[in-house]
Amino acid sequence: DSAGVALTAPGMERVAVRKKAGRLANLVQDIERDPMPDATVGIGHTRWATNGVPNDTNAHPHTSRDGKVAIIHNGIIENASQLRLDLQTEGYRFVSETDTEVAAKLLGKISDKIIEETGKPDLFKAVRRLARMLEGAFTILATDVRQPDIVVGARHDSPLVVGLGEGENFLGSDVAAFVAYTKRAMEIDQDQAVMVSADKVVVSDFMGNIVPDPKTYTVDWDASAAEKGGWDSFMDKEIHEDPAAVQRTLLGRLDENGNINLDEVRIDEHDFKAIDKIIVIACGTAAYAGMVAKYAIEHWVRIPVEVELAHEFRYRDPILTPRTLVVAISQSGETMDTLMALRHAREQGSKVLAICNTQGASIPRESDAVLYTHAGPEVAVASTKAFVAQITAAYVLGLYLAQVKGAMYRDEIAQTLESLKDMPRKIQWVLDTQTKTVQEAAEQMVDAKSFLFLGRHVGYPVAMEGALKLKEIAYVHSEAYPAGELKHGPISLIEEETLVVALATVEKLFDKTMANVREDKARGAHVLGVTTEDFAGEIEKYADRSLIVPKAHPLLQPSLTVIPLQAFAYYIALARGCDVDMPRNLAKSVTVE
Ligand code: AGP
User: What is the mean pLDDT of the chain?
Assistant: First the structure.
């Protein structure tokens, strides 16, 4: 909702700051019109408002009283009001409503104190002192005109990663920020500070103890993967990457002895065997992937699986034992709600396995085992390829647990993996044959005020995902229900021309779902049906329009059923003139609670 930069170079009296409300393009245009000075270091920020409305003043960076120090900040500083009052009594004035300005003024004060004490500036020390005084979640980056060759960062609960270049170094919330310049990255752990210059990176804890050997890794995708590459939008590109996302997530999972492999396992076989319950924690789309996992894992492994929104789980005293496996699903690996829930689960003695799309992110780092979804970077706010990759990974996990616990025969596991390997081809078929019909349906329904998505069995979480996509990017009210639930209340919403999207891809429940569709039609609903090839003729008798997906094992069907729904939301949003990649009010990675 706003963006800004601060630049520092030798000889500057004050940090050069420029910030603008609105899209990043506003800031870019402003700087092109009125260029900023050359600099040796810089910090830049895009804001998602937490404290104070999105305007030029509240945008980051914020500066110290004398303008010599500037900071940018992600997170929420919970003791900002008290710190602000303390500073106000000392005569400090504030121009913005943000917690970040409080931290900036305080950092200026600490920096001056250090100069008084030692005779020279020490931004690294000042940032560490500041970090020890702040409560809440933060990643802070700071620059000081008196040390124009360094940037200093500190993190507590919010993400921060270093990019290691040649004669230049970078800091970002995510590797995507610098992958165009370097693929070598360094992890910054919880409660660590880092000082970066063109040729040096020093990491310490908040007390100043140097971390001798910070972990480094190489990013396994190219900058081009995070570019539009000829597509009109990232969302369209990423929907078309659904087949590859599934394929890559399955790659190399089966070794020569027929055993399934996860990426990182710090749980011993004995503990895995002892698991008697699974709780999936996740938010949004990732939670719907968890709901799909429940159906498959309970069927294959015969242990109960609960799915819980991470922000609810954390605060309700869930029953956790060392025999509970908590599965944290997250595309970004930085969702604060999921991270906090994961920490809670580990504190209670449960093991945590992460299903994550981002190498080196906080969630996989803090988990006992990791299964990466190799979907490649997902840029559009609406999750698409990550969802199909997440359910694929959840299937792999289910089969892995079945293998460890001996709940399925080896050939049965291998056979199911084989069916999974056929999914990319089937998804491609949906994209190739159904897109035109989806687009026409979307154009016909573009003015609808409200949608009702119905599904049964594994179709229910897919219905939830279809409804979320539509809300998120097309700003249309949409709800999802298990089709059988309609008669218990929501059917009263149906009137002439209400739009119903009915998912009937679970073969054994086709007739029951059609009975529900007839009930809706009898009350005037307009129905878009989704079914498998075998029922293509049947569904035409009930639905006004229909979309077809190939038939698969019933538990694997969600990977196919969701594809036309992703495309449907995309085309409705497009026809309504919405920004499909960056919907209003949303951030790709939600790093606040
Ligand atoms: C999906 O379209 C949403 N943008 C959102 O619900 C997302 O899935 C959720 O915030 C969880 O994100 P994560 O997978 O990065 O943890």
Answer: 95
pLDDT digits (tens, 9 = 90+) for 86-112: 999 999 999 999 999 999 999 999 999
Contact 315, 345 (CB under 8 A): no
Give distance in angstroms: CA of 335 to centre of ligand 1.
Answer: 8
- Burial category of 230 from C-beta neighbours within 10 Å (exposed 0-12, middle 13-18, buried 19 and up): exposed
Pocket test for ligand 1, best of 292, 311, 335, 478 (most atoms within 8 A of CB): 335
What is the spatial distance between Cα 358 and Cα 354, in angstroms, rounded to a whole number? 11
The residue whose CB lies within 8 Å of the most ligand 1 atoms, and thus the one to mutate among 332, 359, 591, is 332
Q: Read off the pLDDT of residues 306-329 as tens digits, 9 standing for 90 and up.
A: 999 999 998 999 999 999 999 999
| Confidence band, pLDDT 50/70/90 cuts, at residue 256 | confident
**Size (the chain), residues:** 593
Query: Taken in order 321, 458, 418, 410, is the CA torsion positive or negative?
Result: positive
Q: Which amino acid, one-letter code, is at 383?
A: S
- What is the tens place of the pLDDT at every residue in 211-237? 999 999 999 888 888 889 899 999 999
Exposure on the CB side of residue 503, measured as CA atoms within 13 A: 32
User: Residue 38 carries which DSSP code?
Assistant: P
